[in-house]
Specification:
Blueprint lengths: L10 E3 L6 E3 L23 H21 L3 E5 L2 E5 L1 H10 L3 H30 L6 H15 L3 H14 L5 E5 L1 H19 L3 H4 L11
Helix pairs in contact: 1-3, 1-6, 2-3, 2-5, 3-4, 3-5, 3-6, 4-6, 5-6
InterPro entries: PqiA-like (IPR007498), PqiA-PqiB_transport (IPR051800)
Protein name: Paraquat-inducible protein A
GO cellular component, one term: plasma membrane
């Protein structure tokens, strides 16, 4: 069955209230007839903004894992701990499940989100028709995970609490914790800025992806 788009019928949806408006020639100045929000066929500079946020997250991902996430001051001295040192501590003390949870939530998941978002942006910029349905599904997964992004920060906070739980100590967050929180927020914002409709602009409306 032949497919069609709203743009082909000169229609444009409002991102604020959802009302479908009739598109006029001067789309840059058009506003929603119901709520007055500016109307856009596609989010302005979507790819550029998403790339900027994603690159910032990638840069901060390195100090988030290298710099200490906490500084511990106790009767036995001072010590700095990173995410990986906390994981190794739990692993070496036999708390394998906790170590694996922290490794997945604080190391693997952020890295996979960065890689997946980069894949979507690269293929969209190249106007690739490769696995469009799978890429659209991947975006929906990233968008869904975004609602739970702060779980990564919670895991890091839990690590801070557990690593020195048995000691009489004063624990303060380190620069790594700030960088890690920034990675989570920037990745989430990058996903929100991306307009998935741009992926489908590279193919005709009657395109079918049977893979």
């Amino acid at each position: 069955m032949k497919q069609t788009t709203a743009a082909a019928h000169k229609l444009i949806g409002c991102e604020s209230c959802g009302l479908v408006n009739l598109r006029v020639r001067t789309i840059e100045q058009q506003r929603c007839t119901r709520c007055g929000a500016p109307l856009h066929l596609r989010r302005p500079d979507s790819v550029a903004r998403s790339w900027a946020l994603l690159l910032a997250a990638m840069i901060l991902y390195i100090p988030a894992n290298v710099l200490p996430i906490m500084h511990t001051q106790s009767l036995f001295g001072a010590q700095d701990d990173t995410i990986m040192s906390g994981i190794l501590l739990f692993w070496n003390t036999g708390s394998y499940l906790i170590a694996m949870i922290i490794f997945v939530a604080s190391f693997m998941v952020p890295m996979l989100k960065l890689g997946a978002m980069a894949l979507l942006l690269i293929t969209t910029q190249r106007r690739s028709a490769w696995r469009l349905r799978q890429r659209a599904r991947l975006y929906r997964i990233l968008e869904g995970i975004g609602r739970w992004s702060m779980l990564d920060v919670f895991v890091v906070t839990l690590t801070i609490a557990l690593v020195r739980f048995n000691n009489l100590a004063v624990i303060t967050p380190g620069p790594g914790a700030v960088a890690f929180g920034a990675v989570v927020v920037l990745t989430m914002l990058s996903t929100q800025q991306f307009d998935p409709r741009l992926m489908w602009d590279a193919v005709p409306p009657d395109y079918t992806d049977d893979e």
